[in-house]
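Thread: Modeling a multi-component assembly for a lab meeting

Hi all, long-time lurker, first post. My supervisor asked me to bring a structural picture of a complex we are working on to next week's group meeting, and I have zero experience with this. I have the sequence lines for every component (442 residues in total). Could someone generate the structure of the whole assembly? Inputs are pasted exactly as I received them:
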Amino acid sequence: MLVRVKGSSHQPSDGRLAALAGERVFSSEYTYRRGAELFGEGEDAEYVYQTISGAVRTYKLLPDGRRQINSFHLIGDMFGLENGAIHRFTAEAIVETKVRIVRRRSLLDAMANESTGVTNLLSLITLNLQHAENHMLLLGRKSSLERVAAFLIEMDERLVHPDELTLPMNRRDIADYLGLKLETVSRALSTMRDKRILRFNGVTQRQVVLMDREGLAKLDA
Amino acid sequence: MLVRVKGSSHQPSDGRLAALAGERVFSSEYTYRRGAELFGEGEDAEYVYQTISGAVRTYKLLPDGRRQINSFHLIGDMFGLENGAIHRFTAEAIVETKVRIVRRRSLLDAMANESTGVTNLLSLITLNLQHAENHMLLLGRKSSLERVAAFLIEMDERLVHPDELTLPMNRRDIADYLGLKLETVSRALSTMRDKRILRFNGVTQRQVVLMDREGLAKLDA
DNA sequence: CGTCGCGTTGACAAGGTTCAAATTTGGTGG
DNA sequence: CCACCAAATTTGAACCTTGTCAACGCGACG
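Re: Modeling a multi-component assembly
Sure thing. I ran the full set together rather than chain by chain. Output:
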C-alpha cells in the first residue's frame, strides 16, 4: 500500500505531495489516456506523481516480455520518487487517469528547509519499501489462492471497504502483479465465487462484492 | 544490492554510516554469534546497522513457518533503517558477525543539519527499494535456474568477482531467498556444475568457482 | 564411533501453466 | 440503436516445473 490522502479532495496543489514541503511547491496536473505511459524504465526521474483520479500500474519487464507489476497506484497514491536519478520501472495509466506532477528537485529543495520534512519524506518512501517487502513474501511463498485473496484484501482496504469493489485493472494485470497467469487468477476468483466468499455484480466481472471478508481473510496465509 | 563501502576498512566509526551525517554520529560495535537475532519483526527500530564482518539475513515469516528472506547483508551493507518506528522483519547473523550500530535518532538529527544529508539518505534508502523491486521481478517471473543464476551473479558482483565465491549461507537460506525449496536450489547448482559453468572447490559445497560467467549470465533472463 | 547438520539425488505428486475453445463484454461504425 | 468485431474472461484437459518424501553420503565433532 502506498501513500493516500483521506477523502481525496481534488483542488490543485492539495494533498500530501505539496503538504510535505509546507505548500511551497509548485504542482501541475495532467491527464493520461487509458494505456498511456507516464514514464518508462531508464528515463530521467524528473517528476514525482500523485494520482488524482484513475489508476496507474508500475512494472518491470524481462527481455522476453515477462512482466512483473510492482504496485497499483490508486487515488491519492504517490509514486515516481522511489529512485535516484533514473526510473527503475515503467508507469502506465490503467484507465483514463489524472495526476498531480511535482518537479522532484523542487520537492527536495523545499524539503531541505523543513525540519519535519526529512522525517515525512523518509516515512513516505519506507511505505513503498514496506509494500515491496510484503509483496516479496507473497511472491516467494504464497499459493495462488492466497495471492488472490491478499490482492482482494489489499484493494478492499485501500478503497476503505466499499460495498462494491470496482477493479480498474484486467485479469492479466492482476496476474502480473501476483506472479501468476491470468487463467490462474480467473480460476481462483471462480473458486471464491463458488464458495460464496464473493460475487460479481451486474454484467461485468470487474465489480466484486465481498460477501464474506472473514472467509476471505482465512484464505490468505 | 545494498550500500557497501569499497575496501571495507574496519576502524570504528568508519564507513558510510557515519560519513552520511558528516562524522558527527556516535557508533558502537557488537558481535553476534552464528544464528543470533539482531532484531525481530515488530520490535522498535531504535538502531541502524552496518555489517563489519560476517553476514546477516533479514526475513519475514508466515504463521505456518514459510519464510521469505528479503536480503543478505554482506560486509559494508547497511540495514535496519528500512522502516519507521518498527522493524518489519527479523535480522539474524548467518555466521559470527560484527556490526556497527548507530542510534537511528542521532543519525536523523545529524542529517537534518546537513544540506547533502537528505539526498544521501534518500539515495541510501532507494537502494534498498531498488533491490526489492528487482527481487520482486525474480520472485514473480523467473524460473528456478534463472533465480539461482541471478543469485550467483549478485553474490559475485557484491564480492567484486573473487576467484572463489565463499557462500556464508546454506542451501535453505538460498532457497528462502529465491522463493524455492532447498532441493531445487541443489538441483540447479548441480545442473550448472554439469554444464561446466561452475565447480565446487575442495571438500565443501560452499566454495564456488565461476568458470563461465558469460554462460551464467545467459542462464539469467 | 555414533550422531548431527548439510547437501545431493531419485521417484512420485501436485499446483500452476499451456493450449484450446466457448462465451461474454465493450467499443465502434453504420 | 443495433450489428459486428475485438478484447476480456472463463473453463477444460494435458503437460511440466517445482515440491514432497525418502534415502544416502560426507565431514565435523563430541
